[in-house]
Structures are given as structure tokens and as C-alpha cells.
Specification:
0% strand; globular; mainly alpha; disordered N terminus
Length: 299
């Protein structure tokens, strides 16, 4: 349990993650953007059938698998307990800030028993950088005590048990199940919900309903990795306010092409993390990650 095994060869990952944007250079970029515009126009003239949408969605997933063969959870963790705590801390902040904060937290409280016995004020100071530290401290103390008292000190591996823990909702439970226990799950965070609506897979806003719709489109075996790929794409290329359409390798499949910058050279400047040649969010990324590790807090 803990980290997932490396996916994809290092050479393939490096090729995919070139700072200029994967498969989005020169003529290829122009061809992609032109195709996307034509596809969008065609869909505007004739409504897309459900079957066509499902086929497009599945092709999008296959394309994303080629672009991000190294997709992974962007929280540093070594065991299910660390992943659970880090995921709770990630609410209303970045994974980077969580990763910069958890080394000191886990050094102080390496087990549920240790964390359950923590002095609240001392924990608050350790997790202050993540924001909402008082509420998060209350959740962490509560879930640690529940794991200690109700589950023998081990993080449970069932959805119904995980969501019974203080501060743990369905999204957090699916993150833990998929990445610490190998149980397939769809993680509907802000990025995931935004992209699946932008791609017209669904128009649902409620995360539980989004999860149900997407689960019907893809086989269960794809759920966890699909979640990583979509989130990776949302953080690196398909941004909320200004997506880098002109540097997007799946532009021909996107019915919303043109919402962002379509000029390939300008779009390249919008790429983030390894796609733009910058550090990622993890201080300890997997071996196959082609980008740079994130700096420690205060570095």
C-alpha cells in the first residue's frame, strides 16, 4: 500500500512532458486547433448522441493516458494514514502547501494513536500554513481517535467506514481507497468537475451526481487513473479562467475549444508544473515523474 508503482517509461514521460506542451508544436498544434474548431462547429449544428459522447469521452481518456503516463496522487504519503491526513488537509488549499506542511506533522504524530493524543494548540501551529487550521485540527483529532478506538489503529479500507470518520467525505474516501488500497474510485474535486462539464460529459454540478454519471461511462478499472489524468490536465493545461487551448493535445476532442488562448505560442506560456518546465507539487514525486520536485517550506 502507499505509493502506486511507476507507470510508463521515463523516456515516454519526458517526451510527453516537454515544456513546449505535449504534441502541440508547429503544424501539429495548428492541425489540432483547426480540427477542434471544426468538431465544435459540427457539434453545434447537430446535437451529439449519448453514444457519441461516450466514445469521445473514452477516447479522451486514452489520449490523456498517453499525455500523462506518470499521473499520480499529488500528495506526499507513505501509508494510508498519511494519505488520509494529507487529503483532509488539502481542503481549501494546494497540494503543494500540504506537502510542505506534512513532514513536520508526521514527524510529530506518526500514528493515529500519537495524533489522537496531540495537544490541539500544538497541532494547530503545525498545520497553520494550510488554512482553516482550527477546523482541520478538530477533524484530525477526531478521525485519529476513531481509527484508534473503532478500527484497531488501522485506516479502514471500506467506503462506508471511511466516511464515518470526522472530516472525511466521499471525495476523500475515494482518494484513500484508490491510492492506498487499490479500490477503484472516482475523485470529483474542483478540477474534475470543471473539466467533465467543459467536455460535455455531464452538466451536473453535484459531485455525487457527477461521480455517478462518469462511473457509467467508464469501466471500473479506469476510475482511479481517470481521476488522476483529468486532474493533471486541469492543473497543467485546461485552467479555469484561461485554458491553454492552443497547446492542448486533446483539442480535437474538446467541444469547448476556444474558451482559452488558441495561439500555440501564447498558449505555451500558460502551461504549469512540468508542462511549463516548473517544479511540481510533491517534494517526493514518484520515480517516473518527469518534472522537478517542489521546494520545502521556506526554501
Amino acid at each position: 500500500m502507499g505509493e502506486q508503482p511507476a507507470r510508463g517509461s521515463g523516456a515516454a514521460a519526458k517526451k510527453t512532458a516537454a515544456p513546449a506542451g505535449p504534441r502541440a508544436k508547429g503544424a501539429k498544434a495548428k492541425k489540432a486547433t483547426g480540427a477542434a474548431g471544426a468538431a465544435a462547429a459540427g457539434r453545434g449544428a447537430k446535437p451529439e448522441s449519448h453514444l457519441a459522447m461516450v466514445r469521445r469521452a473514452r477516447r479522451t481518456n486514452r489520449e490523456l493516458a498517453e499525455v500523462y503516463p506518470y499521473a499520480h496522487p499529488e500528495l506526499d504519503f507513505r501509508n494510508p494514514f498519511e494519505l488520509l491526513v494529507a487529503t483532509v488537509l488539502s481542503a481549501q488549499t494546494t497540494d503543494l502547501r500540504v506537502n510542505q506542511t506534512t513532514p513536520a506533522l508526521f514527524a510529530a504524530y506518526p500514528t493515529p494513536e500519537d495524533m489522537a493524543a496531540a495537544v490541539p494548540e500544538e497541532m494547530e501551529e503545525l498545520i497553520r500554513p494550510t488554512g482553516f487550521f482550527r477546523a482541520k485540527t478538530k477533524s484530525l483529532l477526531g478521525l485519529a481517535a476513531a481509527i484508534r478506538d473503532d478500527f484497531g489503529g488501522e485506516v479502514p479500507g471500506r467506503l462506508e467506514d471511511l466516511v464515518s470518520l470526522p472530516g472525511v467525505g466521499r471525495k476523500t474516501a475515494n482518494v484513500v481507497l484508490g491510492n492506498a488500497f487499490g479500490v477503484p474510485g472516482i475523485t470529483v474535486d474542483t478540477h474534475f468537475g470543471r473539466l467533465v462539464r467543459r467536455w460535455k460529459w455531464t452538466d451536473e454540478e453535484d459531485p455525487v451526481k457527477v461521480e455517478a454519471v462518469v462511473a457509467d461511462i467508464f469501466p471500473k478499472s479506469e476510475w482511479t487513473m481517470l481521476s488522476h489524468r483529468v486532474v493533471f490536465h486541469g492543473r497543467r493545461i485546461c485552467h479555469s479562467r484561461k485554458p491553454a487551448c492552443g497547446a492542448c493535445p486533446i483539442a480535437p476532442l474538446c467541444p469547448s475549444y476556444g474558451e482559452g488562448e488558441t495561439d500555440p505560442e501564447k498558449a505555451k506560456k500558460l502551461l504549469k508544473y512540468e508542462m511549463g518546465g516548473y517544479p511540481g507539487q510533491r517534494l517526493s514525486p514518484p520515480p517516473d515523474y518527469p518534472g522537478k520536485p517542489a521546494p520545502a517550506l521556506g526554501a
